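Record pair follows.
FIRST:
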Amino acid sequence: MPELPEVETTVRGLESVLAGRVLTRVEARRADLRRAFPPDLRQRLTGARVTGLGRRAKYGLVHTDRGDTMVFHLGMSGRWRVDPGEIGTHDHLVLETDEGRRLSLMDPRRFGSVDLMATEALPEWAPFKALGPEPLSADFNAAQLGEVLKGRIAPIKAMLLDQRIVAGLGNIYVCEALNIARIAPTRAAGKLTAPKRTLLVEAARQVLTEAIAAGGSSLRDYARPDGELGYFSKQFRVYGRAGEPCPCGKGVVARRVDSGRSTFYCPACQR
């Protein structure tokens, strides 16, 4: 599933095409993805000018001058295509601008979603209201982490995947951050010391920043809107590298399965 860096990369790619432009055509080519398209999507977006784009957790945001925001989630296989040569079976939403540019939301598995919200109501929208702080913001810090993890015996990896604790982190980047911070994924979350929490916050920011700079990770279907692949997967320290040497130089990357998800870590340096 596309994680925070992939969504951030997508939003930045769309910004160069959509920011300041008027949407002259909006076509939902089927009734639904994971859930139904808003019934008034075409009416409210056609003729609207895009005033800006943004991201919250793993959601992309397209703001308009009508006080509406289109919120999209890429699900498992979704991605935006810019100026596609042809519109195919899996292109489920098509936008055209006054500049003659065309974008299509392609989602073969249809686990993504598109919602249309009043911009001012976004903070109170149920999926957003429950979210924790953004990991690249100052609100995510060692003190905040200590407070929300106090007394928790659940593994730290599971806690970091909980979007109520921190918004936007997913399996790939949690594995990478825990390796950088040298914290075992099975460590009881409430047992982390303040110095370890500081290392973890710094590691999460480091891996996310590097992943965004590399255009994300191209796993399965993900690619940037311009069709280019993200290259951060070539920099993975542990993810998908079971049996290979850990960058610490002391151990070999191991793999375990927790709740159906693969966890990659180094038993030698992650304690």
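SECOND:
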Amino acid sequence: MSKIRVSAVQYHLHTIDSFEQFALQSEHYIKTAEEFGAEFVLFPEFFTTQLMSIGESKGKALTINDLPDFTDRYLELFTSFARRTGMHIIGGTHVIRRNERLYNTAHLFYPDGRVATQDKIHITPTEVHEWNMAPGEGLNVFETSKGTIAMLTCYDIEFPEIVRMAKAKGADIIFCPSCTDDRHGFYRVRYTSHARAVENQVYVVSTGTVGSLPTVDFMRANYGQAAVITPNDIPFPPRGIMVEGELNNDMIVTADLDLQLLYDVCERGSVTTWRDRRTDLYTDWS
């Protein structure tokens, strides 16, 4: 089958009191995507920072250094979702601790219980200076029963080289979990997602957090919208947008991606940007 149904969650951040509330909210989106017949569902970057709003015994919000303490429960929860539904779940990103360093890591939960990860490769100044995060050191693509995908988080999509590498490794769909706090950041990610889709003739599925966490530093403002972005060629929508959500609303969007159509355009489109690369003049990432 060449068609893949994908859903993207505009996850609504708000203060919660327990991990169980986080689990119930996540399950709501999973059940919605399941009702729509989705085969892949994408959550946003940093959506698990909602757990920091639970706070400690004196009511003060947890810090980014506390977030990895939820990792085992997060993995167990989303592994169970994937097993139960048979969906591939890109569980947004979750902050993990490895060798005493913090990493902003995207997680792919397979229906058979496997979990694959991709650290965010390009780290923003806030992540470096305020949260002391470390950058990932390698790019992976992930084989699934439906096709080959990559997970590139937010700021990553703003770097054309890394998406070139993902395409060269065989990725047809780039899942881009994102978290932006204002319009400037949002449109940087959105416009470069369109550029990467045109340059590499791939689909880009993106989404972001909405709502706010008033007690959590650097998560008080969110400006987000999900979108499924296509190359700009005759078989696709003229603006390269297959579907998009309503800005800053709590919702989920769903669309069908036709991989055969993508391959046809790569070979016989009105432009063939991937095939026409001048690798005699610049780096061939393949």
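COMMENT: The chain is about 25% helix and 25% strand.
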